[in-house]
Design goal:
Blueprint lengths: L1 H11 L11 E5 L8 E4 L8 E5 L6 E3 L1 E2 L5 E6 L2 E6 L3 E3 L12 E5 L4 E6 L2 E6 L3 E13 L2 E9 L2 E8 L3 E2 L6 E2 L1 E9 L2 E10 L4
Antiparallel strand pairs: 1-4, 1-8, 2-3, 5-6, 6-7, 9-10, 9-18, 10-11, 11-12, 12-13, 13-14, 14-17, 15-16, 17-18
């Protein structure tokens, strides 16, 4: 029943090219090989350093911009900070009608994660370990993504992902996407909330 409803949603959600909206993935540029890009506690070069990003880092997720557009809000292990946008280049999606990869979604209590890569997907939990999955259908809209995954002939998972701020409930870090994962299996159906991120530093 859940699968049929979600497939209907997938067919109705308009597929469209993504404009430059946030969160968005960036790559570090213009930083010397022996240097780092500082993450500041506030959008100011005088603010305390809250972390650092390697000079050739890819997939840096920017959640939002400062009012003047010069600073981007990014994640650090236990919170968020700001980096100068002068040192970041937007990573364009290879296919704007598909979900940008890599993308990681996860939830806590119970712990689970789904990772999307250019070549496929993987589900992981303490009970199952890493399990490969196939992407059977997906759609992109301004509000977020819909992704239909298949683990086998009788087990399907669907991620409904929204561009809304999300907390993992374990730290002060904000993530740019919230998600609800629906699972349809022979032993019953379930839905679990979580967060998603483009950040794979």
């Amino acid at each position: 029943m859940i699968r049929g409803v979600l497939i209907t949603l997938l067919s109705l959600w308009p597929v469209q090219a993504m404009a430059q909206v946030f969160p968005a993935s960036y790559a570090v540029t213009g930083v010397a090989a022996d240097d780092v890009l500082n993450i500041r506690a506030e959008p100011s070069a005088q603010a305390a350093i809250a972390g650092e990003i390697a000079p050739y880092a890819m997939n840096v997720e920017v959640l939002s911009l400062s009012p003047d557009g010069k600073w981007g809000r990014v994640g650090v292990p236990e919170g968020n900070g700001w980096v100068s946008m002068s040192y970041l280049d937007l990573t364009e999606a290879e296919d704007p009608t598909l979900v940008q990869r890599p993308l990681s979604c996860f939830g806590t209590e119970p712990f689970w994660s789904v990772s999307l890569y250019p070549g496929g997907a993987e589900y992981n939990s303490p009970e199952t370990g890493a399990v490969p999955m196939s992407v059977v259908q997906e759609a992109v809209a301004a509000e977020g993504f819909l992704i239909q995954l298949e683990e086998g002939p009788t087990l399907n998972r669907t991620l409904i992902i929204r561009r809304t701020q999300c907390s993992d409930g374990m730290s002060d870090r904000a993530y740019g996407f919230s998600t609800l994962m629906f699972t349809e299996a022979p032993d019953g159906n379930a839905s679990l909330p979580g967060c998603c991120t483009l950040d794979h530093r």
